[in-house]
Amino acid sequence: MYQDQNAPLDLRVADLLGKMTLEEKIQQLNQQAFGLNLNANNQGQTLHDVAPDIGSLIFLNDDPVERNSIQRRAMEESRLGIPILFGFDTIHGMRTVYPIPLAQACSWNPALVTQAAAMAARETKLTGIDWTFSPMIDVARDPRWGRIAESYGEDPYTVSVFGVATVQGYQGVELTESSGVAACLKHFAGYGASEGGRDYRATDISAQALWETYLPPFESGVKAGAATLMSGFNDISGVPASANRYLLTEVLKKCWAHAGFVVSDWNSIEQLVAQGVAKDRKEAGLKAFEAGVEMDMVDRIYADHLQELLDEGKLSMDSINDAVARVLRVKFRLGLFERPYTPIVPVSERYLRPDDRRIAAQLAEESMVLLKNDGGVLPISPAVKSLAVIGPMVKDQENLLGCWSGNAKAEDVETLFDGLTREFGGGADLIYARGCDFDGDDDSGFAEAVAAAAHADVVVLCLGEKKSWSGENASRSTIALPGIQEKLAGCLRQVGKPLVLVLSNGRPLELRRLAPLADAILEIWQPGIAGGTPMAGILSGRVNPSGRLAISFPVVTGQIPIYVGMRSSARPNDGNYQDIPGEPLYPFGHGLSYAFFHYGRAILSQDKVGMDEKVTVQVPVTNTGSVEGQETVFWYISDPVCSISRPMKELKYFEKKSIKPGETVVFTFEIAPLRDLSYCDSTGKRLLEAGDFHVRVKDQQVSFELSGC
Ligand code: NOJ
Fold this sequence. Notes:
Layout: H1 9-19, H2 22-28, E1 30-35, E2 56-60, H3 64-77, E3 85-88, H4 101-106, H5 110-127, E4 131-132, H6 156-171, E5 184-188, H7 207-214, H8 216-223, E6 228-231, E7 235-236, E8 239-240, H9 245-255, E9 261-263, H10 271-274, H11 281-291, E10 296-297, H12 301-311, H13 317-333, H14 347-350, H15 354-367, E11 369-373, E12 386-390, H16 416-424, E13 429-433, H17 446-455, E14 458-464, H18 483-495, E15 499-504, E16 520-523, H19 532-540, E17 597-599, E18 603-604, E19 608-610, E20 615-623, E21 629-638, E22 650-659, E23 664-671, H20 673-676, E24 679-680, E25 686-687, E26 691-697, E27 700-707
Parallel strand pairs: 1-2, 1-10, 2-3, 3-4, 5-6, 6-9, 12-13, 12-14, 14-15, 15-16, 19-27
Antiparallel strand pairs: 7-8, 11-16, 17-20, 18-20, 20-23, 21-22, 21-26, 24-25, 26-27
Helix pairs in contact: 1-13, 2-12, 5-6, 5-15, 6-8, 11-12, 15-19, 16-19, 17-18
Bound molecules: 1-deoxynojirimycin.
């Protein structure tokens, strides 16, 4: 019956499970890597001989023919013909790589992110991969942590929205019917709280912070139907994520009723030994399995020890059956039993199709944030006859891709120089000078750069981070750019020409010294393959920038942590560092436009509301500028008095809309008390308390009273 695609899923699972030997079951929980991992942190061994009944492979290869031949052995040579689940890290695109997740969130356009994820899913699927280890929905508040690039930022609501948007793109409406891939919410949970932003470190997370900050994106992702989750590397207040029964079983399986499975992170089972909670591999396997990790990523611990643990009575057959059923369920949901093989289509139809490039470019465009524009130096006037285009990022391809760039090829990346040439070529001369490298202290290129600036009307200085400076195991003690880049900017400032700074990086930067040197700053993040034209379009004014920060830019590294949902100080006007302002340099939500948006008065539908009613708040926004632009309105809730102190303001809703010059558009936020006004206690229970609440939008605040709870 398990082969009958019309039979109910649970019956198929039960039927197959009933036919499997213990050894076959354990193999389903085993994942190995096939091919050479380009991620130096997780090299592992190259697997040459794949057991036909293995549960899953990380497919570090882009050849679907090879994949199909491995799958054929599973289908034809394993006793029950159970297909292998092929996984891979498609994080922001497979070959058509689009902006890093942190940038995506700055677009405030979840529908576009869904489109990009669907495009990534298609390329992933045609490469032979059914499962991507994405989205990473770790709330990240320490930009020293390299993995902040993979996150949707510092705010739990934002991370939830973009996590769900991504899951929907990957999985489609229904995994069984779609051409999508299974998503994997990671890293469950709290990895973003790594101490001091160092990677792989312990995290100290209170129960309150867990429920309020780190778990909401996972709960939303599970509700959105994400097929799988990955347990984290981090130790959570003494209980490592990969041995955390509370999270993996009590919360995920019992409370949220997740029916899919959890895979460990690479080596995270064996690492329980290093973390000091298991004496050896076997005990580590027992702890992870008992906690609720169903699949062992590359450790071979389950393959080596589960049977023994069962024989010793330390594990029950029921728990093994449950784990295997979860893995099989995902394989059935993916339709792998019916469609085990990847259709082989020509590479030109598989990757980089023109429509897909357009999606990547659109997302790059919407994620770029204009941080500063003094004196209206941007857009660059058509009267400008020469541009000095300077900096190590100008002709770079590799670094614009950012971390985890799938199977991207640097040669597919449009450089900033190419984008500028397309945009300005013919109208203005471009004078290029590299100036300096990304780091080091060689300033021998400065003279050429200064000469280029002296000959030009406007200087476009393109600085930033190498892609290897963010991502896994890429933490940095300072989020400033290396001194040589700041020094180059200083020399160019001396020339006295208008200076436009273009930044490409995988984290917020410390811009305290750079910002005053530039008249305008455009943050382009790591835009992927199609960033040059969008960037140049913003500089020329063909495109009106619409990105807004989904992460705060601290004044200096020492100001970390600083983020939007902070709690109030006991002395709100005191206690900041003496030597810097109390606010971030560029706060969450910041971003300029070439249009001007005037906010009218915010109006509430009523000033008293019962707990089962809804209250609506509206604000009219008028574009008083001369060009069309997109405005994102952010709606925050504050609860000034509650049994526990609450964040000073919590983002509850946002909306991005286009507004024509002279037009007024009304933005609406419908407040549902239980969803928007409640809080979680330290056990995860949602509580609603009567009293006054404030709604904050831009610089206004309106208040209403909640009663009846
Ligand atoms: C380790 C990373 O932490 C995780 O995010 C990734 O999915 C796995 N390696 C597989 O590459």
